[in-house]
Inverse folding.
């Protein structure tokens, strides 16, 4: 697209210069027509420090068919392919520090064009309140002492993150006596250093601002960032400890869509919160909590239509009244007096119909009226239903023995075809039966319909500490496998995994690789800020092409930063967009 944009610009300039057959006035009039132009300087490097803009002037020399060489800079048009690196004013490129990277500078004079490379590097430094003003000098003059090395406990090494995450935290522990730290994020074209005073004997953390992270993310899309922490004692600053480096892999493209989740047992009102992934750095907003629901009722179980305009909810816990909420107005479209009851649901991709689960029965309904269209002909007690993104099948759990829709054992995964034109169902086909004593539940189709993500535990389906993340090919062609990296360890209640709605691509030197993002709730510790036991939402990628190679197709997980840390956060549901509230 950049190359196309350049040709469009060049073409429009040629039209402007050559219309009606008139010659352009200037130093080249008597020299004839240009046959070659050259732009200089070649491959300039601009270093932006702490946001102080850097300017670079360019010059264009034209060689004419007469053999004459003239300076035509004032009559040339300049542009840079990647405008986030800088902007032109006449023949001067101004790098503002919004991002670092490499790009091409282009010049056009009459019918001729030329280009050269440019590299922009951005170096930012911030000294926190409480840290000495000469913190950087203290670190730059110290000698490395391995006994003082801090240990980074978050994020995990080899984690994948989107460039528009918004916030970035580093957590660490350190040797006794260290009280001043440098937290550094570096990549090929940017460096951000944060100096902060901390007592890290029991663990400490520091957060980069959304603006700082944006520069880092935009400078290293599709590349790696290196995180290090250095620590010293201000009483004896001659020696400094350096942590082992943590590598963060950035994806090329932003994460998009909207996420809705249930927050409970904290400082905020209980209920459903949401976050627009295209607006990084902002906290989640209350959407349908006890402050917005009819009569301040509790809402936990919820599911969104793909386009985000409808939300199906269950009020007041299991077997409570259910309804469908118009997201734009936050008003119930159906009665909330228990005229409708369901515990789980999934919208058809169009949002026109919804499959609901109540007491082991899956019912297809009109989402506008709630009217039942038909009952899915399952082979037994069923729960936890999910429509594929293509709308031609569902996956659900078939329970070994009837019980509560939300808490059972002996669950197996079943797929069943669906004809959207006739609303007819095919026969149930068992996708996966877990080993004796195991329970499979919370299935979810990948955005391309090729994979089913699910939980497996050695206990019931509700809040099982042994819950772990698994995946299976929806065709049944490959055996189910555990997602070892995000599971991390046993006993973390890694539960209710869901895919983000978009298929994404990772571009590396080895080629282009498809992947999906997925989220889940987990009771793992969040670095030093939150001990194990309180659920938060975590994210990890899934690379389907890595399955055939026998490796783990996922990666270490990171905590989604928009959550309130004091609340218990569960049941993350995705939409392609956040619908504004009227």
């Amino acid at each position: 697209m950049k190359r196309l944009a350049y040709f469009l610009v060049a073409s429009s300039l040629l039209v402007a210069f050559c219309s009606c057959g008139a010659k352009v006035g200037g130093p080249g009039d008597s020299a004839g027509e240009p046959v070659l132009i050259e732009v200089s300087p070649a491959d300039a490097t601009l270093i932006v420090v702490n946001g102080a803009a850097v300017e670079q002037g360019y010059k264009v020399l034209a060689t004419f068919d007469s053999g004459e060489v003239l300076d035509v800079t004032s009559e040339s048009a300049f542009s840079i392919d990647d405008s986030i690196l800088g902007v032109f004013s006449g023949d001067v490129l101004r790098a503002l520090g919004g991002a670092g990277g490499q790009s091409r500078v282009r010049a056009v004079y009459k019918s001729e064009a030329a280009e050269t490379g440019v590299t922009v590097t951005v170096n930012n430094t911030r000294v926190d309140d409480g840290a000495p003003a000469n913190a950087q000098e203290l670190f730059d003059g110290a000698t490395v002492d391995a006994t003082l090395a801090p240990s980074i406990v978050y994020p995990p090494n080899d984690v994948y993150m989107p460039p528009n995450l918004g916030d970035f935290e580093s957590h660490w522990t350190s040797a006794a006596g260290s009280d001043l730290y440098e937290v550094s994020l570096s990549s090929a074209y940017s460096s951000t250093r944060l100096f902060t005073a901390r007592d890290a004997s029991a663990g400490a953390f520091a957060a980069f601002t959304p603006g700082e992270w944006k520069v880092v993310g935009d400078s290293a899309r599709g590349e790696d960032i290196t995180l290090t922490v250095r620590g010293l004692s201000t009483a004896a600053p001659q020696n400094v400890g350096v942590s082992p480096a943590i590598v963060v892999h950035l994806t090329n493209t932003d994460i998009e869509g909207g996420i809705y989740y249930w927050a409970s047992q904290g400082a905020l009102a209980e209920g459903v919160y949401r976050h627009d992934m295209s607006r990084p750095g902002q906290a989640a907003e209350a959407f349908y909590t006890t402050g917005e629901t009819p009569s301040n009722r509790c809402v936990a179980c919820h599911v969104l239509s793909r386009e985000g305009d409808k939300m199906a909810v269950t009020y007041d816990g299991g077997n409570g009244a259910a309804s469908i909420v118009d997201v734009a107005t936050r008003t119930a479209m159906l009665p909330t007096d228990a005229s409708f009851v369901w515990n789980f649901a999934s919208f058809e991709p169009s949002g026109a119909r919804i499959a609901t689960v109540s007491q082991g029965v899956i019912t297809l309904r009109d989402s506008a009226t709630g009217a039942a269209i038909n009952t899915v002909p399952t082979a037994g007690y069923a729960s936890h239903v999910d429509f594929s993104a293509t709308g031609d099948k569902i996956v659900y759990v078939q329970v070994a023995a009837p019980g509560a829709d939300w808490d059972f054992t002996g669950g197996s995964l079943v797929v069943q075809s669906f004809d959207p034109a006739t609303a007819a169902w095919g026969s149930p086909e068992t996708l996966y039966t877990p080993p004796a004593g195991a329970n499979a539940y919370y299935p979810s189709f990948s955005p391309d319909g090729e994979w089913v993500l699910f939980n497996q535990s050695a206990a019931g389906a509700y809040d099982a500490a042994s819950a772990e993340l698994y995946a299976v090919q929806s065709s049944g062609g490959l055996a189910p496998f555990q997602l070892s990296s995000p599971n991390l360890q046993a006993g973390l209640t890694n539960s209710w995994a869901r895919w983000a709605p978009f298929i994404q691509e990772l571009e590396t030197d080895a080629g282009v690789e498809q992947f999906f993002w997925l989220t889940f709730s987990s009771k793992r510790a969040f670095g030093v800020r939150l001990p194990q036991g309180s659920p938060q939402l975590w994210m990890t990628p899934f690379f389907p092409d890595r399955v055939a190679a026998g490796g783990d197709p996922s990666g270490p997980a990171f905590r989604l930063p928009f959550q309130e840390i004091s609340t218990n956060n569960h049941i993350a549901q995705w939409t392609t967009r956040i619908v504004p509230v009227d």
Q: What stands out?
A: Confidence is low (pLDDT under 50) at residues 1-26. The helical segments are 2-18, 135-140, 210-219, 484-487.
